[in-house]
Amino acid sequence: MSSLPPWLAQFLPILILLGAIALVLARLPKVELGHTDAFRRRRFFNWFPLGMTYAFLYMGRYNVNVATSAMGDRTSNADFGTIFFWGTLVYGFSFLLNGPLTDRLGGRKTILISAAGSSVANVLMGAVVYGVLRQDWQPPGGLVATLSFLYAVNMYFQSFGAVSIVKVNASWFHVRERGQLGGVFGILISLGVYFAYDWSRLIVKAAPTYWAFFVPAAILAAFLVLDFFVIRDTPGQTGHPDFDTADASSGDTGAPLGVWPVFKRMISNRTIIVILCIEFCSGFMRNAIMQWYPKFAKSTGIAETFVAANWGMLLCVAGITGGMFAGLISDRVFDSRRGPVSFVLYAGMSLGAVATVFLLGTPALGWTVIFMSLCVIGVHGMLSGTASMDFGGKKNAGLAVGIIDGAVYAGTALQSILLGSILPAGDLAKNAMNWSNWPLAMLPLSFLGLLLATRVWNAKPQPKSTPVPATLPVPPAAPASRTGTGG
């Protein structure tokens, strides 16, 4: 692969893995719900551009990490921490507004708002960096304050992304199909992480730093146009019959409730409360791994080893594998229950956290944290991407995923504060043994997530009334195929 362009050489293993997964899924027996081949094709053309928009939103979110590092002495790690803190804070609180807005406006409109807003915010951040680097311009209030404000604006629009994708897909996928959909959600997260870290790194190596903002802005603008013409909120808007998805909204034919009644109903639901707590742990674990291993590698002098040098690509492969594993065992082993899948993956995370205590300073550490990433992305896709629409129902999917993702970012905030204060700095950070607080901080959260997963082992959404049969009416001239490709 040495003659290939660097970006293609890195992306090729991911393409091969995606191809292998597609082949395996095509050969599996289908969950038969009466979907026609035409419906499956239209569903694919609905969720695929929607999902890729979400993946490139990730690129326009985490590119600030690579860009601030590439600016040299213009920005420090502390400056990046300040910028990222304000963005994360706005992102977490935005769910309280944007979840209900998505339920009211529909996921199609809000993914368009998300792509447009994030694209403009990235153009503005790129323009600021261009002015600083090429014109020696000093923004009013300083570079850090300006980027913090623009990044917070970016993250407000970013917060529509996950809510929109869940809201749209809630009307297109039956509960019995959503485990596989959760796996796809994990793939999208993984691709986004890869784009954010590895593609952004290639961009700043090949071009001035501000292109790390302009490139994702242009890609998001292109998907904005595509999404406008392709994405629809429900099958009925494309000429296909709407159907009962058998989630928590099944049988609910009344007028939509207000935000506060829905919020009270959800936070009084024991299953949702447990899922919130599990996802709090997931937010802590995901970012404790994803954000701190590269810093560990750089500080201890192993940044050029295989795992550290290919961090984005390996995270992507791990996330794809974990997401599809989680989705397949949920639908085909555990009867579309999400709790047992979370238990299996948290067991893997707990074993990994124990192992890291003893593997600091060894080459095996990198592969151990990659395995832990496989587990945590699988859980996140299964709960935020799937259980949220199951238990919120398609009527309230926006608010449900908003609340659950809010818990994820509460865990993210905790790990940022905690690990930032207990991990070594300066010369002390050069010795791997001084990083023992890192795995020790992950142990309690991994075991807590494992315990909580047992509390929702048998949880499944309860329809408001006896749902209509899941099988869709199929015209005699177009019988449902058992060999059609899944959407």
Write a brief caption for the model:
By secondary structure, this protein is an all-alpha fold.
Report the sheet-strand fraction. under 5%
End-to-end distance, in Å? 32 Å
Biggest sheet architecture: none
Number of helices: 17
| Helix content percent band | over 70%
Order of helices and strands: HHHHHHHHHHHHHHHHH
Rg, rounded, reads 22 Å
What is the β-strand count?
0
Strand pairing plus helix content: what structural class?
Answer: mainly alpha
> Average pLDDT across residues?
80
Describe the global form. globular
Low-confidence runs of at least 5 consecutive residues:
466-487
Give me the secondary-structure topology.
Elements: H1 6-27, H2 37-70, H3 77-105, H4 107-134, H5 143-158, H6 160-170, H7 178-206, H8 211-230, H9 259-267, H10 270-290, H11 292-300, H12 306-309, H13 311-332, H14 339-359, H15 364-392, H16 397-422, H17 437-454
Name a few traits of the molecule:
487 residues, mainly alpha, globular
Description:
With 487 residues, this protein is mostly helical. 71% of the residues lie in helices and 0% in strands. The chain contains 17 helices and no strands. The chain has helices spanning 6-27, 37-70, 77-105, 107-134, 143-158, 160-170, 178-206, 211-230, 259-267, 270-290, 292-300, 306-309, 311-332, 339-359, 364-392, 397-422, 437-454. Helix 3 packs parallel to helix 5 and helix 7 (178-206) crosses helix 15 (364-392).
